[in-house]
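Thread: Modeling a multi-component assembly for a lab meeting

Hi all, long-time lurker, first post. My supervisor asked me to bring a structural picture of a complex we are working on to next week's group meeting, and I have zero experience with this. I have the sequence lines for every component (573 residues in total). Could someone generate the structure of the whole assembly? Inputs are pasted exactly as I received them:
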Amino acid sequence: MRRTPAALVEADPGPAHTIEFDGRPVPALAGQSIAAALWAHGILAWRTTRVGGRPRGAFCGIGACFDCLATVNGRPNQRTCLLPAEPGDLVTTQEGHGHADLAV
Amino acid sequence: MSSGRPRRLLHPPYDLAVIGAGPAGLAGVVAAADRGLRCVLLDAGARAGGQYYRHPAPELGAARPDRLHHHWSVFTGLAERLAEHVAAGRIVHLVHHHVWTAEAGAEWRLHAATGADSSGSAVIGARAVLLATGAYERQLPFPGWTLPGVVTAGGAQAMLKAGLVLPGRRVVVAGSGPLLLAAAVSLAAAGAEVPAVLEAGDYLGYARRPGVLGAVPGKLVEGAVHGAALARHGVRLHRSSAVVEAHGTDRVTGVTVARLDARWRPVPGTERRIACDALAVGHGLVPQIELATELGAATRTVPDGTVALRVDRRQRTSLPGLWAAGETCGVGGAELAIAEGELAARAIAGAAPSRSLLSRRRRLREFAELMAAAHRPGLDWSAWLRPETEVCRCEEVPVAAVREALDELGASDARTVKLLTRAGMGWCQGRMCGPAVAELCGGGQQRGADSRPLSCPVLLGELAEPLDG
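Re: Modeling a multi-component assembly
Sure thing. I ran the full set together rather than chain by chain. Output:
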């Protein structure tokens, strides 16, 4: 059997639900954060920086660094490492400060 | 802004508010409730445990969470006692409550952002406060460290322990301090390939005080267990070595590692490249104490250059009514945190300290100071930086801007550098770049405590509310 985190702790999660990332379906397990679901799907970046437009994703994993911000269900600047993934969540890559609609 | 937000609640004053539900906070709150105090436990997380005992949500159905932990039974014991006190009404446990400022007084007032998205608010009153807010990881920048796939060692641990996920298949682990060994062992146990662990310091530093080491046999056993586990997974530990660059365009594809001299300057000619799709990196932990330093609590500089709260033998800070325990008093691990949490609770409840607890605290504190000295960043660690390397991740401030502030604009401390460059003005409140900027200003030795009125970003609508609740 392949060693995986789930196998290591003998996890028995329920069936995966689905969130959407930039229009693509991403499976997520109940109890996983949005960032964890994205990592499990091989996605490491879901934000571009305000100055250099560089890709960023989860860095500290504990809500301290704010690198993992994304737009979730239309609300920008959500810390995805802390937010539980809920069925049907719409996650979109956040460009810069995420408030382009305000034209500031 | 305030439309749709839950109304703020003003709780009746508790005898004790404990901030943080990690080892120190849990031990403190149950010991205080044991002695009849009415307590509230405030924690930013969804479940008790803090970072050390971070574990999967129940929905993930993990039958063996202990496999990612040391001394898991210690946590389950504390969690059971917490549950009993909660059921009996002696402790109110408020999850998803991130305290962002504390008002001192005969009755303390703690302001918290609430909910998983921090959009709600609450004010909690208490006659005494125990600060058990733990620590976050110290980062030292290097070229390429902002690439996706470069994560903190603690972050790799947190995402694995709570979310059962890995950042990549082939994960290099680097930096300094014992957390690297724990992270490497967990990553390998969970199926990641760990091509190398690079420790910038030299564990031989521990050998300078055999008496201190001998007094904490548990720590020696723990080190041996980690060493054996690394060997079992075929992971090599390289001492006096560091990642000096991460490579990739949109994500990390490899790292360059080099041997370091005693001052952490990379030794020319020793560079080699390791292919990887993730890097877990960190340089020990930084006490998270801004709620207390903002109020003027006295601090001390730990041998690793970090700043911790100064407490007396009863865990009292210099501020009346404020106690501290665990990593806030200097990073020393879970066992020490538990001893200090209980000592603080006894003092708050007016009970005598136990002699065995005092002795355990002394032995573990001495070991913690020894460990801190062994993993202090070398004087020349910044030799691996380049002018364009970003120091501040939030505000994207390069090394060149920090050096210009220091060399040409007359800055001599982190606060002035912040005002001139914006390094430390971003979302993370300087948690990621603060220690590095302080080091670039001439080392942690002259570093005063950071003073920050808010310990996390807060909605403007929240600040617009009158402070009298």
